[in-house]
Specification:
The protein is an alpha/beta fold and 387 residues long. The protein has 13 helices and 13 strands.
């Protein structure tokens, strides 16, 4: 029997991270002690009150039934209240909020609701691969690259974007992988651009709570007219270190939420009930829009690690900007990012080559600060030996 993948699967570019995983596993088999500064998975555990809520709610047999595809009403209410306090954005939990099995699922599935075969989708580059691959190519859409260049602070130049016949646009700030941030004024220009060109904006705001040095990330829905054009994605993964619990949400334009719900109703249920209950406790830990001590302390920890890494890399002659958000540091390596990452791997330091995030990621390497400062210092010492 000859089995042929669908054309849309064949059209996916090689997944560089799978190749890296093979190399990493081989190194581990060789007994090499690796310092991983690659994956964006928080090493800080979830807050104790969330762990207690998960324990309590998972012990309730009623919380093991199916949940609503849109998410439970009390979860959507908590999301709406959180947005109101944190961003000053008023949301109707009945029509402008939807629960997600992690924001990755939502980002991939929203395109299924609105992208037709051959539709052009504006995607940033470098960027989280799901925008171009999981969302666009797997919906038979056509990715239209918006380069994120250092001279533009890693923001797309909207004046030069080819928006003709574009259906959708993905944006992500605070940004993975570059760590770049934006202000509300820039988001106003995005809303105007989307309105003028009749483009749906999918705004990935997953890192809004991991910010430093006084910077506070905005929501695109804060902008006048933002709700007319945008749907915003968020999750508890980064804010509360709940990556494995797969709990996220999307908010915004009610027509977009409704179309999105029609897709979700056909392919999955909502997140597990007990996870939604725990996520409610997490969101309710904010008081008048201010984060709890857990979130503040986590951000402070990441900031200190960022300082340690940037200082160490600069001392080695590597050029990098100190980011105001995320737990990533985007480092200029010059030449092949894959070759550079491979050299570091020989020293037992795992990083992510920029080309894995797209053509315009070449020449950079992404470091994460999801390791203790002692490990970060050790990584810099190892790197010094090979540079």
């Amino acid at each position: 029997m000859r089995i042929e993948p669908a054309k849309r699967v064949k059209n996916l570019p090689p997944y560089i991270f799978a190749e890296l995983e093979k190399i990493i596993n081989e190194k581990k088999k060789q007994g090499i002690n690796l310092v991983s500064l690659s994956i964006g998975d928080p090493d800080i555990p979830p807050p104790p009150f969330v762990l207690e809520a998960l324990k309590e709610e998972s012990a309730n047999p009623k919380n093991h039934n199916y949940s609503f595809s849109q998410g439970e009403p009390d979860f959507r209410e908590a999301v709406a209240n959180w947005y109101g306090g944190r961003f000053g954005v008023e949301l109707d939990p009945r029509s402008e909020v939807i629960g997600l099995i992690g924001s990755k699922e939502g980002i991939a599935n929203v395109a299924r609701a609105f992208v037709n075969s051959g539709d052009r989708v504006l995607v940033p580059d470098p960027a989280y691969p799901v925008y171009a691959n999981g969302a666009t190519i797997l919906c038979d859409g056509v990715p239209v690259i918006m380069p994120l260049l250092e001279e533009n602070d890693f923001k797309p130049d909207l004046d030069s974007v080819d928006a003709k016949d574009a259906k959708m646009m993905f944006l992500n700030y605070p940004n993975n992988p570059t760590g770049s941030v934006v202000a509300t004024d820039w988001l106003k220009s995005v809303v105007e651009f989307a309105r003028d060109n009749n483009i749906i904006v999918c705004y990935d705001n997953a890192y809004s709570e991991i910010t430093f040095d006084g910077y506070k990330a905005p929501s695109i829905l804060e902008v006048d007219g933002g709700k007319d054009v945008a749907i915003e994605f968020h999750s508890c993964s980064k804010t509360f270190s709940m990556t494995g619990d797969r709990i996220g949400f999307a908010v915004g334009n009610s027509q977009l939420i409704n179309g999105f719900l029609k897709v979700k109703a056909q392919i999955d249920s909502g997140p597990p009930l007990y996870v939604q209950k725990a996520a409610i406790k997490a969101l309710e830990s904010y008081v008048d829009g201010e984060p709890p001590e857990y979130v503040k302390n986590a951000a402070q920890t990441y900031a200190e690690r960022r300082d340690e890494l940037v200082s160490g890399l600069r001392a080695l002659g590597l050029r990098c900007t100190k980011p105001l958000a995320t737990f990533y540091v985007w480092v200029k390596c010059g030449g092949s990012s894959m070759d550079f990452a491979s050299r570091l791997l020989e020293a037992g330091v795992v990083t992510t080559p920029g080309v894995g995030f797209g053509e315009y990621g070449e020449g950079y390497v992404r470091f994460s600060v999801t390791q203790r400062k002692e490990k970060i210092r050790e990584a810099c010492e190892r790197i010094e030996e090979i540079l």
